[in-house]
Specification:
Layout lengths: L1 H17 L6 E7 L6 H11 L5 E2 L2 E9 L4 H13 L5 E4 L3 H6 L1 H7 L3 E3 L17 E3 L4 H14 L4 E7 L2 H16 L3 E8 L7 H9 L4 E5 L6 H9 L6 E3 L6 H7 L7 E4 L15 H15 L6 H21 L7 H12 L4 E3 L2 E3 L15 E6 L2 E4 L2
Helix pairs in contact: 2-12, 6-7, 9-10, 12-13
């Protein structure tokens, strides 16, 4: 009995000498793994299995919830992640409306968030609430400018626009107007549709009546294929452009022969193997593609999943500095994490190189975009 008491005392002293163990770093994700945006959310969820589980001697715990693309559900999910799971950071959601809906929640609770949606309105204009929000996908204007340059070089003058009837379509229309006007391009038709729609015949006919030189479809995931298919069915012969929201294999699968020749701006990870060897992004992008396809199959990779990877890289790059200030699971750690994320410099991710500032919580430059086309049902680098 005496021996057991001594052993117990020794273990207790050893535990005190080692100091209290730090809590796990918890990262919560609300993703659209079901519903109309599932082709975005599923690769994002799949990517979680490829993320690091330890950094700076700290274990990392990921908690993934499905919001089905519903803004109300995304709010419920984030409140649960913050109040019940005590997460240190939030990643999500997969769509623009769902991402916008959770800004108030993370700002109220002072938890840093990295959005996986593209619209710049998530982070601009910067204010006290958006100071807690960062964004992994490229801003729409960066991609719209690439499109405008490409279209102008092709001698195009008039563009028909078909976009989602939500914040994604609104954001793209606004940015396309700016970029196109600067290059002498004019949008001659502006039609919208809902993500779950099964027909866009009326919208397509109105766009075709305007006789544009080309059509730009501002959709995301598999719903972006519907206007393209309808245009082809109705005999449209002009070039069709898409946004980077359509850059995944499910878009190719659903679109089939009707999306052959589609042109769009995209993140470099989409054509990682075709990037020049001197491109600093190639190593990380190709590593992600290789690991993802080894787990989920050749051709399964999507730029949306890579956004989740980049969001995680942004958060984890800030962890060592935050740990110098406070322990995970505390308000002080979350504030320190946010501050360190805002000071991110030259962070290479799969989509580009991030340089954050207090007024820029996206941090990408021209290196975060390439122009691609669909050739034989595969993505091909144009420039």
């Amino acid at each position: 009995m005496q021996t057991l008491k001594i052993l117990g005392l020794s273990l207790a002293i050893a535990g005190l000498a080692a100091g209290p163990a730090l809590a796990d770093i918890k990262i919560g994700l609300t993703l659209s793994t079901t519903g109309p945006a599932a082709s975005l959310g599923i690769p994002q969820k799949n990517t979680v299995a490829l993320l690091p589980t330890e950094i700076a001697g700290q274990k990392i715990q990921y908690i993934v919830l499905d919001d089905g693309g519903d803004p109300t559900k995304s709010v419920t999910n984030v409140r649960k992640l913050i109040t019940e799971d005590n997460v240190d950071a939030v990643i999500g959601s997969s769509t623009t409306p769902a991402s916008i809906s959770i800004i108030d929640v993370v700002a109220e609770n002072k938890v840093p968030m990295v959005a996986l949606a593209a619209t710049a309105s998530l982070i601009l204009p910067m204010d006290e609430k958006k100071a807690w929000v960062f964004k992994a996908p490229q801003n729409d204007i960066l991609m719209a400018t690439a499109l405008a340059d490409f279209m102008a070089a092709k001698g195009l003058k008039t563009i028909g626009f078909i976009g989602f009837s939500d914040a994604y379509g609104d954001g793209w229309y606004t940015e396309a107007q700016k970029a196109f006007t600067a290059k002498g391009l004019k949008i001659v038709a502006n039609e919208r549709y809902n993500r779950p729609d099964t027909s866009v015949t009326g919208q397509v006919l109105k766009v075709m009546q305007a006789n544009p030189d080309a059509v730009l479809i501002a959709g995301a995931g598999t719903p972006a294929a519907l206007p393209a298919k309808t245009l082809k069915e109705r005999g449209y012969k002009g070039p069709i452009y898409q946004t980077h929201g359509a850059a995944n294999s499910d878009f190719l699968r659903v679109g089939g022969k009707d999306v052959e020749g589609t042109i769009m701006p995209a993140g470099p990870v989409l054509v990682a193997a075709e990037l020049p060897d001197g491109n600093p992004i190639k190593k990380i992008a190709l590593d992600y593609v290789t690991r993802y396809e080894a787990m989920y199959g050749v051709g399964s990779v999507a730029t949306f999943g890579a956004h989740a990877l980049d969001a995680d890289r942004l958060i984890l790059a800030a962890v060592p500095a935050a740990l110098e200030t406070a322990k995970p699971g505390t308000a002080e750690f979350r504030k320190a994490l946010r501050d360190a994320m805002e000071k991110t410099t030259n962070l290479i991710v799969s989509h580009g190189i991030m340089n954050m500032t207090p007024t820029d919580h996206n941090g990408f430059d021209d290196r975060a975009r390439v122009m691609v086309t669909v050739e034989n049902n595969h993505w091909k680098l144009l420039q």
